[in-house]
Design a protein that fits this description.
The protein has 190 residues and is mainly alpha-helical. It has one domain: Hypothetical Protein Ta1238, Chain: A, CATH 1.20.1200. It has five helices and four strands, in the order ββαααβααβ. Strand 1 (16-18) and strand 2 form a beta hairpin. GO terms for molecular function: ATP binding; corrinoid adenosyltransferase activity.
Length: 190
C-alpha cells in the first residue's frame, strides 16, 4: 500500500521523475505521457461522476479504480528485475477488458442503431462522457507510441481501446438511450 507522509519531495525539480521500478526518466518521456494522460482521464471521469447516478456512477467508480491500475501498469516498465521486486507489479488483466465488453454490450442492447455520427452534447453527463472518450483515445495513442519504443502490457492498450468505446456507448445511454443524441448533419452550414 502507498503511504504519502510528505507531498513534495523536490526530487523532480529538474524535470525528471521516478518510475514504479525506481528508474528516473524525463517528465516528458513517452511513458510519463502515457500514464499521465490516464491520470488526466481519471480526473475527467471524476467530473462525469458529478452527473451520474446509481449504476452509471458505480460503473464509473470501477473505471476510476481501473485507471489507477493502468497508471501503475504503465509507470512500471516490464523488465526481468520485476522478479526481484518486493511485490509483483500491478498489470491490467484481460478480465478488466472483458468486463468493459460485457457492459458495452448491455448498454448497446438498449440503443437504436446509429444513422449518423453523434456530436458531443445532449445531457450534461453525455457531454462529460464524450470528453472522457476523447481523452481515452489520446491515452491510447500515447500508449501505442510507447509500445513502439518499449515493451508494455498489451492488455493496457486493449483496455484503453475498449474504454473509449465504453464511453461512447455510455454517452448515448446517458442521452436517454440515444433519444437526445445530437446527430451530425454533413454540410449543414455551407
Amino acid at each position: 500500500m502507498v503511504v504519502l507522509n510528505k507531498i513534495y519531495t523536490r526530487t523532480g525539480d529538474k524535470g525528471d521523475t521516478a518510475l514504479g521500478n525506481g528508474d528516473r526518466v524525463a517528465k516528458h518521456s513517452a511513458r510519463v505521457n502515457a500514464y499521465g494522460t490516464s491520470d488526466e482521464l481519471n480526473a475527467f471521469v471524476g467530473v462525469a461522476r458529478l452527473e451520474a447516478k446509481d449504476e452509471m456512477d458505480a460503473a464509473l467508480a470501477r473505471i476510476q479504480n481501473d485507471l489507477f491500475d493502468l497508471g501503475a501498469d504503465l509507470c512500471r516498465p516490464e523488465m526481468d528485475k520485476d522478479a526481484d521486486a518486493d511485490y509483483p507489479p500491478l498489470r491490467i488483466a484481460d478480465a478488466q477488458v472483458s468486463r468493459l465488453e460485457t457492459e458495452i454490450d448491455a448498454m448497446n442492447a438498449e440503443l437504436s442503431p446509429l444513422r449518423s455520427f453523434v456530436l458531443p452534447g445532449g445531457a450534461a453527463l453525455s457531454a462529460h462522457l464524450h470528453v472522457c472518450r476523447t481523452v481515452a483515445r489520446r491515452a491510447e495513442r500515447l500508449a501505442t507510441d510507447l509500445a513502439t519504443q518499449e515493451d508494455i502490457n498489451p492488455a493496457a492498450v486493449t483496455y484503453l481501446n475498449r474504454l473509449s468505446d465504453w464511453f461512447f456507448v455510455a454517452s448515448r445511454a446517458a442521452n436517454d438511450n440515444g433519444a437526445r443524441d445530437v446527430l451530425w448533419v454533413p454540410g449543414a452550414n455551407r
